[in-house]
């Protein structure tokens, strides 16, 4: 097993130098698990921010040979859980296959005060 921590140049860069955006755990057969740290995005509405978050997640996964279809687990933090349906509408546009395992939490505040949503995922990448 090999562990690589990464901030891919082809994806949005982290907002702080104190964390890595992707932890890749590669197995001997070439398969891997990708742990992608929580992503936030700019935008005035939850819909805009959610779209930006999933675009960032897609770019981070793509940099490691994966796609949103490879996501097996998702954890979402919303600052207003009453807007879950608005978030879900956008999420379903990006996660179109069998839904991954999921947890959603309400948080009073996220990494940036203007952030309305933060999402982290785990993806399973098959051997090449």
Written account of the structure:
With 128 residues, this protein is an alpha+beta fold. It has 2 helices and 6 strands, in the order E-E-E-H-E-H-E-E. The longest helix is centred in the middle third of the chain and has 17 residues, at 46-62. The radius of gyration is 14 Å and the shape is globular. It starts with a strand and ends with a strand.
In a nutshell, what does this entry contain?
This protein is α+β, with helices and mostly antiparallel strands and about 130 residues long. Helix content is about 20%, strand content about 30%.
Question: Descriptors for this entry?
Answer:
alpha+beta, 128 residues, 6-stranded mixed sheet
**Average pLDDT level:** 94
Gap between N and C termini: 16 Å
Poorly predicted sequence stretches spanning 5 or more consecutive residues: none
Strand content: 25-35%
Overall structural class, as computed from helix and strand content, comes to: alpha+beta
Radius of gyration, in angstroms, nearest whole number: 14 Å
Estimate percent helicity: 10-25%
Please report the total strand number as a whole number. Answer: 6
How many DSSP H or I helices?
2
Major beta-sheet overview: 6 strands, mixed
Order of helices and strands: EEEHEHEE
Globally, the shape reads globular
* Major sheet strand order: 1-2-3-6-4-5
């Amino acid at each position: 097993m090999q562990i690589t921590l990464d901030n891919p140049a082809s994806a949005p860069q982290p907002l702080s130098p104190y964390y890595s955006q992707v932890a890749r755990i590669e197995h001997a057969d070439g398969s891997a698990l990708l742990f992608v740290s929580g992503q936030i995005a700019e935008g005035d509405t939850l819909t805009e921010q959610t779209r930006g978050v999933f675009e960032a997640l897609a770019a981070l996964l793509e940099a490691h040979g994966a796609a949103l279809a490879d996501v097996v687990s998702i954890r979402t933090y919303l600052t207003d859980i009453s807007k879950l349906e608005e978030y879900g509408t956008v999420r379903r546009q990006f996660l179109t296959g069998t839904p991954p395992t999921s947890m959603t939490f309400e948080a009073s505040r996220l990494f940036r005060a203007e952030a309305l949503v933060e999402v982290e995922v785990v993806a399973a990448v098959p051997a090449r």
